Amino acid sequence: MTSLLNTVSNALEQIILEVTDTNTGTVTWLDGDSAWASDLFPQSNNQFSFIINSDTPFLFDFLIDAKLIWRQAENGKLRSGLWTEVTHNNKELHLEAIAIRQEQRNLLIISNQQESFTHQQKTKQSAREVLLSYDRLFLKNEYLHTRLLSILKQPAAQNNNIIATTSKVIENAEFAVIITSSDFTTSIENSAALRLFEQNKAVSTQQSRPIDIIITLMKNQLPEYERLLLTHSSWNGELCWILPPSTLKWLKIGFYPVKNKLNEVENWIIFANDISTIKHLVQRNEQLALQDMLTELPNRFSFWQVLEKHIAAKRAFYLLYLDINEFRRHNEFYGHDEGDKLLIELSKRINTAVKASDFLARVGGDEFAIILNNIDSQIACKTAIERIIKNINKPFYTSKSESFNVSISIGAASFPNDAQSVEELMKFVDLSAYNGKQKKKNSIQFYSQSMKDVSHSVILIEQELRQAIINNEFELYLQPIIDIKTNRINKAEALIRWNHPVKGIVNPDDFIPIAEKSGLIITIGEWVISQTCQMAKQISELGFELKISMNLSPAQVLDANLFKYLSTCIFDNQVNPRLLELEVTEGVLVDDYRVAEQLLSNIRALGLSISVDDFGTGYSSLSYLKKLPLDYLKIDRSFIKEIVTDDNDKAIVRAVIAMAHTLNLCVTAEGVETAEQLSFLVDNSCNSVQGYIFSRPLKFDNFIKLLNISSS
Amino acid sequence: MIQKKICLLGASSVGKTSLVQQFVEGIFNEKYLTTIGVKVDRKTLPIANQEINFMLWDMEGNDSYNVFQERYLRGAAGYIIVVDQTRASSLHEGLDIHTLAQQVTNCPAILAINKNDLPATWHLDDSENESYKKLFDLQFSTSAKTGSNVEEMFLALAKLLVRFEKNDITT
């Protein structure tokens, strides 16, 4: 074998074999005679023809796939992928095989891929070390965060002792840990924090505290900084600290609030990790400095640069900020891998919906930013958004082919109409997305002055609510529920009212959603539970056998302390649990089925009854009704309102009553106001009714008077 | 001599190569060196008066740089899903790979929870333990570093395969 082709084959580190019998794997040696090839096939014994056997198991296995190529009529080829073969004389060969069908001839090329193997190993080694570092960093932060959070949430007296014992843990942490008061005055900072933010004394005369450096960086690099503080949100992300002449550090920051019962921030926990090496590795090996590793889209920093360029060019555009509603829940339900899969798929779908001249980037966990170029009207922007939503509305699939849907929130702001600077534009668009957010629906929110005003008014109400809790401005009213069979009051629903010092009585619809969003609902809900227990006890001491029902908000259902609080209240007030009932909405039961099922079973075991409030307005799913421990269904007032005139409502109410009775549940109709409505409900075997026809919600004393009158 | 193909599967950096090295050569290398492609090692085990030759297909770990390839499982007599007890994400990835593998083979599968010489960052509670037991034919807590349960795991797999072989003959 001294031909030119043979010389070329040797130079390319490959051998060319012709397959003469695909069944037995018999090959004839055409070209290439490097020493490694003889080591690989000792059975060839320098013979012209030999059989590939299971001594090279990977190659032997590849022949099965190769046969499909060799037996086809047309030309084709198939690669085996890299494998490592240890030869009989203990040499490691890194090889790849290519099966070729060309002009009726079956060929097998085996190439020594030492160079490619070394290159791949070097690249992937670094990349995987980066992945591992991220994993470890994440774990360490998570662990300490959870631990510190649980300590800082303890009452102050216990807190001091535990802080003392954990200060060692904090001090020994490999990354910077800083705990501050609500105004960012440092309470604790470990040595790692001081080391990380050490400044060159020769250059800077005044040394800044680590927390001051972090806050300055956040203010300058995070458009959402103000919103984070206002909404007491946590944040995880990367910041770049440059301090001329020689400091350039990439920092991974964890920024977490510690809130009290009034949802006020008492402390901030801040973690900072130096990820400059990781960044360097990423940049060197994958040129991903400006690219998001998961979706391969431009990342936050790339986006920032492009946005600055666009503003400098002074051409009109719309900026969109898009995030997935309830992404956290999706991750919890399907796992993080599926979450990643969703992000990749979503990024592809958005990409196909925008024009080539537009710019899409992944700027955070489930957040994407889009620059829609050459658009200066809201109508054109809406059209573009609708294209995106249309693509996203199609079902997504998990690896196990389960289909699911997602909804998104989009905030939009225009340059130069709404804002003229990068910071302002980002702040506005972030505020728009945050305000527009709805749990299960796609939402679009354009930036406007009125939105800004509403946002401020919400913040004001939240502050007033906090004050209301402290000043005890809430009051519980009771609305009687009448048993149709006995025509007597057998239950009452406790309804909260807010006696605002200036505005007077505030309707729950105007403050409960804000209390929900701010987390204050937990404290308000606890007050309701405590008051209801006291009232139920008083009523029973007056000799009335009456259940009092109270509403549970979704946040309360998810509150891990609810059951403990409820049972303690019942015990402290010495009230018979059978005199209490909890009302939950359909949404809670479906969204958080497992938590709800566990909680309701425990509550039922305690002796309380459970009713489903506003039935018919949400999912009305039979499957959960059958499985959950329930006692009553409350038909929403919207069905009762037109019951006399609307045939659809008649049919729905009849069906609900029949279905409930089949499942051994009793039915209460809400919002009954007229004799005709009552007559329909009586005729259709509804169990109890509630509404203005009998009584409005009453103050406690008036309710007792009503009880006395009706019993006499 | 019976010859059996065994595949080692799992996320990257969980210790698949180290388990094979510990089992075949009785050594452990502290330095992490990522596997590229596939490497096949062999070891013969004496089981119940006969010899079983394991062909151990050590595969490159699965992550964003390398997706799982079902075709490598062809002809496998069993496979071991290796997960790392210091990284919870490796369990999730391992279970995903197991699901994909089950679509192409019904051969016995083992769950190896590796790195038991290091503190665990996740634990299976009783109910999880029960449900994973159902998913896998055998489950081991191993350490390629100390050798804990490594030999035992491969031996148990060999015995299981011999038992399967006998059943095949008698039925």
State the gist of this model.
The complex is a heterodimer of chains A (712) and B (171). Chain A is α+β, with helices and mostly antiparallel strands and 712 residues long.
Structural write-up:
Chain A is an alpha+beta fold and 712 residues long. In chain A, helix 4 packs antiparallel against helix 5 (156-172). The longest helix of chain A is centred in the first third of the chain and has 39 residues, at 114-152. The radius of gyration of chain A is 34 Å and the shape is globular. Chain B is built from four helices and six strands; from the N terminus they run E-H-E-E-E-H-E-H-E-H. Chain B is α/β, with parallel strands linked by helices. The mean pLDDT of chain B is 88. Chain B is globular, with a radius of gyration of 15 Å. The A-B interface holds A 54, 57-58, 61, 64-65, 81-86, 94, 117, 120-121, 124-125, 127-129, 131-132, 135, 139, 143, 293-294, 335-337, 399-400 and B 3, 5, 12-13, 32-34, 36-41, 55, 57, 61, 63-66, 69, 71, 74-75, 86-89, 92-93, 96, 99-100, 121. Strand 5 (83-86) of chain A pairs parallel with strand 2 (38-47) of chain B.
Strand order, largest beta sheet of chain A:
20-21-23-24-25-26-27-28
State Rg of chain B.
Answer: 15 Å
Quaternary state of the chains: heterodimer
- Outline the low-pLDDT stretches of chain A: none
How is the main sheet of chain A built?
Answer: 8 strands, mixed, barrel
Radius of gyration of chain A: 34 Å
Tell me what portion of residues of chain B adopts beta-strand conformation: 25-35%
**What class do helices, strands and sheet pairing of chain A give?**
alpha+beta
Across the major sheet of chain B, the strand order is 2-3-1-4-5-6
Low-confidence stretches of chain B: none
DSSP helix fraction of chain A: 40-55%
H/E element order of chain B? EHEEEHEHEH
- Distance linking N and C termini of chain A: 118 Å
Q: Number of DSSP strands of chain B? A: 6
Q: Main beta sheet of chain B: strand number and arrangement?
A: 6 strands, mixed
Write down the overall mean pLDDT of chain A.
86
- Total of helices of chain B: 4
